[in-house]
Specification:
It is built from 19 helices and 23 strands. The chain has about 500 residues and is of the alpha+beta class. The chain has 2 domains: about 5-235, Aminohydrolase, N-terminal nucleophile (Ntn) domain (Glutamine Phosphoribosylpyrophosphate, subunit 1, domain 1); about 260-450, Rossmann fold (3-Layer(aba) Sandwich), CATH 3.40.50.2020. The longest helix is centred in the middle third of the chain and has 15 residues, at about 255-270. Mean pLDDT is about 90; it is low at about 460-490.
Length: about 500
């Protein structure tokens, strides 16, 4: 995931403060670290740190961030890189010629590695974003303008990116030709804003203009916007943005996220109507869908799970035990409401199955008579290589277990996943517009050498079961990848 926000403003605007507000509206896309760089045309200033936007920026830190151009980034870390201050963005080199912020992921960095190696810049410690930065920096140091340098380096970017660049004169945005992650343009009086989601443009009281086209580069100088369509657009927004990631008040490809989620719920009602006493969302992403489901079937909607909004992510915690404990800290069922009732729980997705299993257990423990689990997406069978931190395929419960085995593991009275066709229909957009890799294994942008990490055959349960036992005992990622890899390579 991750979030980017940039503004080309005027001398009167406190662009650092506006960027911090924009990043705050995009906090859901990344909570590990955050950073801002600004320029007054003379110098480039930076402030970045681990932690949430509200902790990292205050009046003192933003007052040092002078200038009319600013870019910012929220980082979404993975377990292995957790709490590493090493890779906090925006990326900026010691010569401070320009800075860069990236949302996305390059599954295969071979072309960049070869390029950097050929020019003696390669360093094994670089991540994909830092490699992109170094490639652009190479051309800048050769005397190219930032715009020329980004254009020159862009064929090396094989993967998914929404990039913001900034030097002392320009703000530049570049979106990959597949448009897997969202990126929108807004206007704030005579200033331009570029943000990962439209909710950030709304928050700073800007006006949404349009999305950055897939394959388009936008160059802003002296408040004038230039656009070049660098590569043929092949739009494939990640449908998971609708399912889980984006904020409900954002617009994606002209569709409001809240409304689409509500239609997921209505579609679930058409496919799997239940006669229950109440419909309960798993907050937050389950809320609009639960409302849609309840309204369609004229069932009572109740917020029967209280969410502690001050507890951080549970998804990326490194081991099973930690994850189980934090689900309990995060969500607490209201026993008084649930006792002796038949309830339908609505959640957005099942990835490892840990969250659902714990929730169902807790709702039963609170006295529910029946707990039906309704999921507003199909089964996640394939890992993501495009900037979401889903685990390896071995950890995806739906890749290892049949539907009835999943139900048994989760312990629900019944379990239903929204159909693939139903999910697409609810977006009102065509299937061709989306990346649906998590459900279909269809990766529109080449994933290069990472292909070896995927098993496609259906019904290959025997192989999965071989690892299941070990898996259920120990969720250590290292152990699983160690045991699992040889099987992939056999293919
Ligand atoms: P689990 O099945 O326990 O691995 O977790 C699934 C839950 O995590 C779902 O209810 C989602 O709300 C949430 N989720 C799904 N994908 C992600 C992700 N990439 N990052 C953070 N949370 C996620």
């Amino acid at each position: 995931m991750c979030a980017v926000f940039g503004i080309y403003g005027n001398k009167q605007l406190n662009t650092a403060m506006i960027t911090a507000q924009g990043l705050s509206a995009l906090q859901h896309r990344g909570q590990e670290s955050t950073g801002i760089t600004t320029t007054d045309g003379e110098h480039i200033y930076t402030h970045k740190d681990l932690g949430l936007v509200s902790h990292v920026y205050n009046e003192t830190s933003t007052s040092k961030l002078k200038g009319h151009i600013s870019i910012g980034h929220n980082r979404y870390g993975t377990s292995s890189k957790r709490n590493s201050s090493h890779h906090i963005q925006p990326v900026i080199a010691d010569d401070r010629l320009f800075s860069m912020a990236h949302n996305g992921n390059l599954p295969d960095t071979a072309p960049l590695e070869i390029f950097l190696d050929t020019h003696d810049i390669y360093n094994p410690g670089f991540n994909d974003s830092e490699m992109m930065y170094q490639a652009v920096a190479y051309f800048v140091r050769q005397g190219a303008s930032l715009k020329q340098a980004v254009i020159e380096a862009s064929p090396l970017f094989t993967g998914i990116y929404c990039l913001l660049f900034m030097d002392k004169k320009h703000l530049i945005a570049l979106r990959d030709p597949y448009g897997v992650r969202p990126l929108s343009i807004g206007r704030l009086n005579d200033s331009y804003i570029i943000a990962s989601e439209t909710c950030a443009i709304d928050t700073v009281k800007g006006e949404f203009l349009r999305d950055v086209n897939p394959g388009e580069i936008i160059i802003i100088e002296n408040n004038k916007l230039e656009s070049i369509q660098l590569k043929e657009p092949q739009p494939h927004l990640d449908i998971f943005e609708f399912v889980y990631f984006a904020r409900p008040d954002s617009m994606l490809m002209g569709q409001n996220v809240y409304s689409v989620r509500k239609r997921f719920g209505a579609q679930l009602a058409a496919e799997y109507p239940l006669d229950v006493d109440m419909v309960i969302p798993v907050p937050d992403s389950g809320i609009p869908s639960a409302i849609g489901y309840a309204q369609a079937l004229r069932l009572p909607y109740e917020e029967g799970l209280t969410k502690n909004r001050y507890v951080g992510r549970t998804f990326i915690l490194p081991n099973q035990e930690e994850r189980e404990k934090s689900v309990a800290r995060k969500l607490n069922p209201i026993s008084d409401l649930i006792k002796n009732k038949k309830v339908a729980l609505v959640d957005d997705s099942v990835v490892r199955g840990t969250t659902s299993r714990n929730l169902v257990k807790r709702v039963f423990a609170a006295g529910a008579k029946e707990v039906h689990l309704l999921i507003t997406s199909p089964r996640v069978m394939f890992p993501d290589f495009y900037g979401i931190d889903t685990p390896s395929q071995a950890q995806l419960i739906a890749a290892r277990k049949t539907l009835s085995e999943i139900q048994e593991f989760i312990g629900a009275t019944s379990l239903y996943f929204l159909s693939y066709a139903g999910m697409i229909k609810a977006t009102t957009l065509s299937e061709k517009m989306f990346t649906t890799a998590a459900f279909t294994g269809n990766y529109p942008a080449d994933i290069g050498r990472r292909k070896r990490e995927i098993i496609y055959e259906k019904n290959n349960v025997a192989r999965y079961i071989k690892f299941q036992q070990i898996w259920d005992e120990d969720f250590s990622e290292d152990l699983v990848s160690h045991l699992y890899k040889p099987v992939f390579l056999e293919q």
